[in-house]
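Why show two proteins at once? Because comparison is the fastest way to build intuition. When a single record is shown, students tend to memorize it. When two are placed side by side, the eye starts asking what differs. So, the first record is below.
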Amino acid sequence: MHEIVTLQFGQQANYIGTHYWNTQESYFTYAGQDESPINHDKSFRPGVGADGSETYSPRTLIYDLKGAFGTLRRENALYQLQQQEESIQEGGWSGSTMSLQLPPIAPSGYQQALDQGVEPPPLTNETVRFWSDYNHLFYHPRSIVQLNEYELNSSLMPFEKWATGEELFDNLDREHDLLDRDLRPFLEECDQLQALQILTSLDDAWGGFTAKYLERIADDLGKGCRWVFGSQDGQRTSREKQLLQVANSAQ
């Protein structure tokens, strides 16, 4: 079938990736419409939701930091019941418990319009807080990978240096074997993998994380087609940060 599996690393990549998946979703056609010009089976995977209904979700892994996903959760309308049942079955503690929850993030006006089935408002810098604010799709829970070691926009532990990303990958891979835990389940669903499509930033720590990830892929999978789309932050910033971004890009 020549499937394509997409890997997205970090904020810049996920803003771009969300537009990419929204565009892919816009090509879906339904009964009575012309045939779609795109073979969706290449980038989307069939599945079964918690209620037994058929699902169709992107073949993607989305990596980001704690606090970066906004209103997007691993559990969603397609998989929420399944996740709740699993959490109940896995509970091994028989003593008393106390839940501590942060206040939920309010959905954006764009998301509210999508939920209501009305025309969403235009996107602006003021209305978009997270890349999930304009996301159209449901993702499989395995697609969402939050890295809790660093927090979005943290001033105490900024995720900015290339070496920081390399170190984080090495630590996580040593503990979890990221390819086996995250990527291999998607690869095993493919009949004939065409390529891995990688979206990443180049001028921050995600560049180092992605470089290490690609090294592991090369070691485990050998030769193959990998498309890497790198992005850089074009916003004006301090001279110190500009020099850091240049140093990261030169790695």
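Second record. Ask yourself what differs from the first in the token line.
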Amino acid sequence: MPVMRSRVRRVEVVEPIAKRTRRRRAAAEAGLATPKTNDKEQKTDNERVGVGGAVKEEEENRALEVAKEKKGVLGEKKQMDLLDSGGKSKKKPLAGCGDDEGTASPVPDQVQVEDSPVYRVERKLGKGGFGQVYVGRRVSAVNTNDKSGAGAVEVALKFEHRSSKGCNYGPPHEWQVYDTLGGSHGVPLVHYKGQQGDYYVMVMDMLGPSLWDVWNNNINSNLMSTEMVACIAVEAISILEKMHLRGYVHGDVKPENFLLGIPGTPDEKKIFLVDLGLATRWQDSSTGLHVEYDQKPDVFRGTVRYASVHAHLGRTGSRRDDLESLAYTLIFLLRENKGFVVCKKKMAITSEALCCFCPQPFKQFVEYVANLKFDEEPNYAKCISLFDGEIGTNPDMRPLNTEGAQKVGHKRGHLTMEEEDDEQPKKKVRMGMPATQWISVYNARRPMKQRYHYNVADARLGQHIEKGNEDGLFVSSVASYQNLWAIIMDASTNYSAQVYELSPYFLRKEWIMEHWENNYYISAIAGANNGSSLVVMSKGTSYMQQSYKVSDSFPYKWINKKWKEGFYVTAMATSGSKWGVVMSRGAGFAKQVVELDFLYPSEGIHRRWDSGYRITATAATWDQAAFVLSVPKRKPTDETQETLRTSAFPGTHVKEKWAKNLYIASMCYGRTTLAEISL
């Protein structure tokens, strides 16, 4: 077990006891508590706050905090499986769900909204995240056998309670979406809508079974024919294209939301896409431009089993996400086993493993949609053409109506992946092989002295730091690999004194609180896989107050809360699967964001760079990497920043960077991806 050590640079001026006593007394009179030390081991989920020369420990509702953090930014597998119980995924929307049947008032026996006929409410068809759907039978005397349209005898009635969070500001958001999309190819019409009693009601065309029902009731081991799934693919792509052309993404593509027409009618072989409660705009309605990119790791929209990787990561929805969810839907329909990849498995699994029992076109479709950029316009005709060889040549003999896809093909001409000679090979966004590597970040600086040490054992840590101190260098960054340490020391830190501790515990609170008391602030941290940590605290920083948290998952909710209080992330580290995050007031940042991914988030980092952000903290575990990017209040003269990923410590590369006046700003070891080029 590592031996705990603490070193203070010899030039430090020790505060006289009498002066320290007066200061503590003044702090106590001001209402600031002096910390009580104890020898208990630090708990997993906690938060510590240091204020000037005194320390305040924030006591929070631990049960609530642990529940939130164990749930995790990206979710625990057990909880994800609960959302996928029985093979039918439950929706987990960002906004409120539909009414709670246990507390909401019952739906009315009869419905009449706007100038609609009177409908008797009959059997319940289903319940989703945004309401309940019932059969409505027309009561008024009519002489019609219509099965669809405003005069139909049977309709679908969708109820959403007015107390639903989705109705906080009036009628459901879904109404606006249907106003724009209703009646377009593959989207059912809403004939009437209005409020009756406690419910908002939509009167819609009655449709047939969902693709989930067809798959689940298939006596042939739940298998659909390849031709049937290929027909679903081309028609669904066509429906999504029409929806995207009107500026919306669906946000919850899955088998349960694709419905066939009523059996025995001309529409029985058509598919329709329903449930627009999670639909959002990818295109700004006023400017016509693509909405801005963002990532909020604590926000999830969609259904766990079919959601895109980007949805799991809390990124702003765009057209690529609908197509990726469709890809998972198609693979699910082709597989015999109800068990399917969810959450983290989906992030890391290769297209070969995911599509191992699928024909080649499905694998090509997965690879194409998984590597679309955030604002890239999908080539819908190319996607449709992939499935040509799986579908019969006579449209009348196909198991599904593909009229919409045929129109796309006639309009644009069929293309294949190989026929686009004008396209340059492009870097794959997500399909690289997972790897663990050194991640180093370099900033442009005026020429200065910088020194690095790596593969440093515990016993040699002190001599490297002391030698650097003697040469006028202070520790600026630390990292760990295989329980050995990497140390970066600079001559331009502006620190006046520095202490450090090597502890067998991850961010031992007693030592940190003691040095907060003496006006030191955490300036660098690193954690090893064996649970030990290296904490460096400095004088001469710009910080006025600090808070830190240790958590079993990346604590984005806590970070977001602290942002609102004026704190910014100034250091991060991991120890095994634990995360440690330090936030400070007076950090000199104007804005800050987080990029969190199961692979290296190349696209997100470049988008943030383009918006004026620069990486200011990094940390990674064996399966996740986090980057904190900030906008400084004072713009640097040279904003150049570069990142590097290497299997071994980048010693040779560091010297090459120094020659260009690029110096190490931060580094860590953990999850990345080996980049690939698509041919």
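One difference worth noting in the second protein: The first helix runs from residue 17 to 29.
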